[in-house]
Amino acid sequence: MSLNGTTGWWALITLFSSVCAGLLALVLAHEAAPKHSEAAHETDVTALAVKLERVSTDLDNNKMVLVEVKEDVTAIRTEQRESTQEILRAIRNQDVAAGRR
After folding, report:
1. Which are the contacts of 11, defined by CB distance < 8 A and separation ≥ 6?
2. Cα distance between residue 12 and residue 3, in whole Å
3. Cβ atoms of residues 1 and 11 within 8 Å
4. Which residues contact 58 (CB under 8 A, 6 or more apart)?
5. What does each of the 101 residues of the chain score in pLDDT, given as a tens digit?
6. What is the C-alpha to C-alpha distance for residues 61 and 45, in angstroms, rounded to an integer?
7. What is the C-alpha to C-alpha distance for residues 67 and 53, in angstroms, rounded to an integer?
């Protein structure tokens, strides 16, 4: 097949055009299909994205609640420590008063 003759030239152009058309047809025919058998459809991915956003929001809310609970526990521990100190002082004072008698 000589590229110098017009027949060879047109044969080459026809072959190239056929390859391009075949590739285009293949791409267009398979563009809606999943890329592989395990690929998720766009609606499934969107639903999962919404659920993930809800989980993220719940996580942020739970973090804020956890911070508040930690602050409350710290405050309770401080109050309990003060109450324990007062009770121990009262017991020591009673022991001292009982020892004087």
Report:
1. 1
2. 8
3. yes
4. none
5. 445 667 777 888 899 999 999 999 988 887 776 666 566 677 777 888 888 899 889 998 999 999 999 999 999 999 999 999 999 998 888 877 776 66
6. 24
7. 21
Contact between 8 and 14 (Cβ < 8 Å): no
Tell me how far apart the alpha carbons of residues 61 and 58 are, in angstroms, rounded to a whole number: 5
10/86 Cα distance (integer angstroms): 105
SS (H, E, C) 49-98: HHHHHHHHHHHHHHHHHHHHHHHHHHHHHHHHHHHHHHHHHHHHHHHHHH
In this structure, is the dihedral angle defined by the CA atoms of residues 56, 61, 67 and 73, taken in order, positive or negative?
negative
For the entire predicted model, the pTM comes to 0.45
Give me 23's structure tokens: 């590739």
